[in-house]
Description:
heterodimer, A: Mth169, Chain: A, 2 helices, 3 strands, 32% helix, B: alpha/beta, Rossmann fold, nine-stranded mixed sheet, two-stranded antiparallel sheet, 24% helix
Amino acid sequence: MKARVTITLKNGVLDPQGKAIHHALEGLGFGGVNDVRAGKMIELDLADGTSDADIEEMCKKLLANTVIENYRIERA
Amino acid sequence: MNTAVIVFPGSNCDRDLAVAFEQATGKKPHMVWHRETELPDGIDLIGVPGGFSYGDYLRSGAMAAQSPVMRAVSDAAAKGIYVLGICNGFQVLTETGLLPGALMRNAGIQFVCRDVKLTVANSQSAFTSRYKADEEILIPVAHHDGNYFADAATLDRLEGEGRVAFRYAEEVNGSARNIAGVLNEGGNVLGMMPHPERMSEAAHGGLDGKKLFDALASA
Lengths: 76, 219
């Protein structure tokens, strides 16, 4: 069983990496990009029966820093 | 005063910090490996050094914050034992929850490695008592993730309670309100991005960092 955790910066938290990517896209001539936010994706291969609550705990304790980041869990 | 320096895989300022502790206290620090579950008895000051613990995997300081020794450090901090986190050590202390906020990627994206001017924002703490109020000092920084972030309410609280120890006196990394170092509520835990241990001998080009260690040694 797999789960995919997507970690993104919270709204209002400045994202210097996203900004740099945005500038680079503009430098390549791609117009029409309003904003870029960078995040990360973590794929977990889990034992069957791992509960949603367990995955939540993983996110809160380690995978995301909830001071600055949101997380979204998708079961694949 | 008895001191300890925590060593993680990837720490690279542990020996410099040990030298600074020894010069200030006259005693060799205990070097404590990250897998230890207890600190030696009678420790008065714990240093969490700079470097790239666990290769900065996931987030700077995130893996180190989960290492066994950090539970012992948290227990010690709760008892009022002094804890000093420098650079990666500051990142570890925020990830552990001993200090509020987070250290994000520098606003300018690039690694910053140079001497920077700081202002002493609180000269009353055990760490900063050898400085004058608002004194300007020169201490080197060397970091990629030093951009201090906390929500506005937390920043207001830190400022209102005198818990901002140091501010950058120039633009360095985009830190909220130019914060370079913060204290915990009890005033016994300090995290700072600049490296006082790299400005503690005449050969370093200045002694502004030495005052911090001397203050602690007499605290």
